[in-house]
Amino acid sequence: MSDHPELALNGGEKAFASRTGRAQPKVGVEEFLSIAERFGFKPDALERLRKTVGNEDLEGNGPNLARYICAFPAPPKGEEFERLAKEIFGVQHALSITSGTAALHCAFHAVGVGPGAEVILPALGFMATSSAVALLGGKPVFCDVDESLQMDPARIEPLITEHTVALAPTHHWGTVCDMDPILEVARRHNLKVIEDCAQAPGARYRGRHVGTLGDIGCFSISAYKIIGGGEGGLVITDDEHFFARVCQLAECGGLWRPDRFGPPRWEGELFPGTNYRLSELESAVDVIQLRKLENVVGRYRRVSRRILRQLRRFEEITPQKVNDSAGEIGYMLRFFPARFELGVQVCEALRAEGIGASMRGPNRPPDWHIYSDMVPVVGADPQREWRPGRCPRADDLFARCIGIGVDQWWSDTDADCVAAGINKVLAAYCTPADAPPGWL
Ligand SMILES: Cc1ncc(COP(=O)(O)O)c(C=O)c1O
Q1: 379 - beta bridge partners?
Q2: pLDDT at residue 54 is higher than 80
Q3: Domain ends where: 291, 318, 344?
Q4: pTM score, whole prediction
């Protein structure tokens, strides 16, 4: 007989048959409640939440906030978000992602933007778009705008060079770009089109959702946007290869692939990437936010159209040009006074009427929504390529534009009061135009 105890392998007792240390969930009650507390739930509601969340003994396994380690039988929230996005936008592929900027970074890379490549984007938008191009070593080329404040399709062609890879129309401030002529130029020059829809989810052009007209659509679900959840984003496309490249940059660990360790299925499929995976907690919020999209957009449209239909025309006032009056969202009314001094008077009088209105004016503070101020991207040298003056329409319209925020929850009476107030103020300072009322 040996002195050695029998190995478990040979029928002996197990050395570590069962654990006695009690595990805590990896993400548990306190983490969930620390979020709930921020929303001001009353103590008894918090106590009920505590009991509910603490009810399950999940040991060290969860609940987890990562889509690939979902402790529950239900599908991960990230997947649900993507399924819903595909359904709403009617596209083949959707990827939930950490932000609109991440979405743009992946989209530009997917279509081949890299060192030396040029991307034409509007002189007005937000720095995230040009930043995503620059991050890849590409060069943003700013296209001047027209009175829709969107990129002017007539000014794109002269900017195209042998290095141009893509156009990035940005549907900003809830309005839409004139996509037909933009797509026409892209087709003629064999350029890809990345639509930046961060500020306009749910807007449509000729009946189609923005984001589905070009090659890839990028959205932000950040708290600042109309269906904002917290910090989130979305990429949509019908192109399988672009989608795989988006996924590869967003998640280089390859968990998205049918065979994670398989060789590349086609040239350009695999390359070093990063991690832009959306957390399950944010995805859970974004599923609900995305479900609200049509209603939110519908409310904005109803209120803004009701106001616009009632507005009278004046010689000194040019309403923002509308590229698709049925499709834009309309969370902001915009118009251009003929002179700054008039704009100052109009804004002051509107505010006195209880209508929030603002104009940046000629001495406006720096702003990351205009090309020349995007200093981290274009540099700060006074002689920089994209200094003020390069896109004169954008310089002028950005400073001279009067904006009035629309509230989706305004009643018909509220909308009528706002319309009456705008008419009252404009009539006091401007000359009535010989044109039927209505700005639509
Ligand atoms: C036009 C535009 N593109 C992209 C972004 C970036 O989105 P996110 O803040 O989710 O990164 C924004 C955000 O303000 C935006 O306005």
Answers
A1: none
A2: no
A3: 291
A4: 0.93
User: Does residue 281 sit in the same domain as residue 235?
Assistant: yes
C-alpha to C-alpha distance for 394 and 400, rounded to whole angstroms: 10
Q: Please work out whether the CB of residue 201 comes within 6 Å of at least one atom of ligand 1.
A: no
- CA 174–ligand 1 middle distance (angstroms): 13
Residues 25, 8: Cα–Cα separation, whole Å: 30
From the CA of 211, how far away is ligand 1's center (Å)? 14
Peptide bond into 63 cis (omega under 30): yes
Whole-number Å distance, alpha carbon 101 to ligand 1 midpoint, is 6
* pLDDT value for 123: 98
Give residue 106's pLDDT.
98
Residue type (1 letter), 56:
E
Over residues 43-71, mean pLDDT? 73
pLDDT of 404-429, one tens digit each? 999 999 999 999 999 999 999 999 99
List the CATH number of the domain containing 302: 3.90.1150.10
- The pLDDT of residue 61: 62
Per mean pLDDT, which range of 20-29, 81-90, 124-133, 369-378 is the poorest?
20-29
- Predicted local confidence at residue 31, as pLDDT: 78
Mutation pick for ligand 1 pocket among 95, 97, 98, 101 (CB with most ligand atoms within 8 Å):
101
Q: Which residue range(s) make up the domain with 29?
A: 20-63
Q: What confidence tens digit (pLDDT) does each residue in 222-279 have?
A: 998 998 888 999 999 999 999 999 999 999 988 899 999 999 999 999 999 999 999 8
101 lines ligand 1 (CB under 6 A): yes
Q: Return the best residue to mutate from 218, 222, 371 for the ligand 1 pocket (most ligand atoms within 8 A of CB).
A: 222
| Long-range CB pairs of 264-271, under 8 A, 24+ apart, other chains included | 266/241, 268/241, 269/241, 269/244, 269/245, 271/245
Rounded CA-CA distance 384/390 in Å is 10
Has residue 68 been placed in a domain?
A: no
**Token reading at 298:** 């519908």
User: Is the CB of residue 84 below 6 angstroms from any atom belonging to ligand 1?
Assistant: no
User: Which two structure tokens, joined as six digits, stand for 30?
Assistant: 């306190």
Selection from 133, 132, 135, 103 nearest residue 245 by Cα:
103
